[in-house]
Amino acid sequence: MTSLDPATSADQGATRAARSARTQAIIARIDNWAKLLGLAWIAPLLRLATGENPRAQLKDIWRTLLVPLVAIGVFLTLWAWAAPKVETSLGAIPGPMQVWDQVGVLHQDALAEHAKEAAFYEKQAAKNAELIAAGKADEVKTRSYAGKPTFADQILTSLKTVFMGFVLATLVAVPLGIMAGLSPTANAALSPLVQLFKPVSPLAWLPIVTMVVSALYAGGEGGLPKNFIISAVTVTLCSLWPTLINTALGVATIDKDLVNVGRVLKLGLWTRITKLVLPSALPLIFTGLRLSLGVGWMVLIAAEMLAQNPGLGKFVWDEFQNGSSDSLARIMVAVLTIGIIGLLLDRVMLALQTLLTFQGRR
């Protein structure tokens, strides 16, 4: 047998240690982002694959992956057992399989609608080509397809609406929050208004918003639909308060030494806000933004129902009015979709908070 040179063995050991350290560093970075996405079980699986403390990794896998899966399984089992026992005006409550079947039906409906749209544009293009060939180019007309929106289209409409409402709320709430945090007088002026309007339901705002938008917004060719504007403004009015309150709190509680530094350096107001105030208050501002986005997404569904904006809220209302045997299952598809999208929106905001503040927390 040949024995390894001690120096060679030491070099190999150092190489293995360095490789292991690099692997663990990569896993640690993956773990940070996986937790933000609700995938905390990925890192324990990777560590288990590298042989790091199998007992501890299996315990983490059980807690972060298997326990949630068991809970979901129990929920689905109870749902499947209890659903047929409850009779409604639309029939028995659909179980998980009936709801899943409607996901497939909605997908097939979307494919059929896309086929109709493609056929419409092909027919229009052929007709226009014939007119041009016949020297009647002045009679060429281009029309948009006016078929019913698919479920995916309605999801996209809801996302556009909540995004517009959220952006408007942010543009109003952040400056007002900074003003309230910097000035006790401004805080005293804004505080009663916040407490007065924060609890108001979207159902109370909607008639007022409808009348105001109808009076002021003309719309017209290529403009945003009036129902879209009404829903977005309602979302704005209901979702701006968490951002305003958290921004004011974040600005008011920044380190006083930073304020004193700004005064000593004789920094202008805009410089103090952008260089000192905002970076220090950003974690609380993002907390407010996450809460506002969650409130906005919840409010949106009620606003779309009543404003008839063609999003998920209108989808739920139309299915309720339809009253067919499959309507309840489709409503439950929409409910689950709303919940999943709300979760994803919150995770996106949490990831942005981590990127921009370097201290995002679950």
From TrEMBL:
Topology versus the membrane: Multi-pass membrane protein
UniProt main location, coarse: membrane
Keyword Transport listed: yes
Keywords: Cell membrane, Membrane, Transmembrane, Transmembrane helix, Transport
Organism of origin: Fuscibacter oryzae
Family: Belongs to the binding-protein-dependent transport system permease family.
Annotated PANTHER family: ALKANE SULFONATE ABC TRANSPORTER-RELATED, MEMBRANE SUBUNIT, NITRATE IMPORT PERMEASE PROTEIN NRTB
Transmembrane in keyword set: yes
UniProt subcellular location: Cell membrane
Protein name: ABC transporter permease
Source organism superkingdom: Bacteria
Biological processes per GO annotation: transmembrane transport
GO cellular component: plasma membrane
Family annotation (InterPro entries): MetI-like (IPR000515), MetI-like_sf (IPR035906)
Membrane spanning residue stretches: 61-82, 162-182, 203-220, 232-255, 276-307, 327-345
Matches recorded under Pfam families: BPD_transp_1 (PF00528)
Domain ABC transmembrane type-1: 155-349
